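Sanity check

After download, print the first record. It should look like this:
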Amino acid sequence: MKTEIRELLEKVRNQEISVEEAELILKKAPFEDLGYAKVDFHRNLRQGEPEVIYGAGKTAEQMIGIVEAMKQRRVSPILITRLSEEKAKLIAEAHEDLTFFSHAKIGVVGEVPEPDGLGSVVVCTGGTSDIPVAEEAAITAEVYGNRVERLYDVGVAGLHRLLPHLETIMQAKVIIAIAGMEGALASVVGGMADCPVIAVPTSVGYGAAFDGLAALLSMMNSCASGVSVVNIDNGFGAGYMANMINHMS
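Expected structure tokens:
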């Protein structure tokens, strides 16, 4: 959308179209009411990225319709989060350009652009069990044009696994630190990096982890400066925020 607006303004400046014609184009409805959803076509202009489809709770038929409406307005790529394999198969029958990442429960319709961010986004996890959330974050960042480096299973239970990657951590533009249990990884990484660290607590852990609440509170109480926290298991939110930071000029 940003590119389209810029091209439109260039045409006005070059007198290829009139001011009135440009005004008419901009007055087009900013959303389409499908009955079950109001698809927001101006979100890219306001926030920098198009609307994302949250798959949980939606039927495959509803998502097929939303994708079709977005395609008609030349939105690409289209991101679908929390997408089940069963619904992904049905959507793929209508939209063959869907790529489904089962581990992350993410669907991407259209081609992923080449990275154009300022630097790299590093996604690290405390353990292997955190990888599904990490992949949601990593793929989200990649879909929006970021180069992503993955450091998985580098938690504090074996700190020596993280130390060989100090150069990668120190050169990152943004770091996403994902951990369950007590969530200590975010503080450790935050104490090593000079860039923003986005902490993601996961619902991994035994009883007193309270489905990620312990990690959430631990990360919110981090003594490392520059650490912010998103909600439990919210890999998408972390990937989106990392993208915004990595594209700030």
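If your output differs, re-run the checksum step. Summary of this record's structure: The chain has a mean pLDDT of 90.
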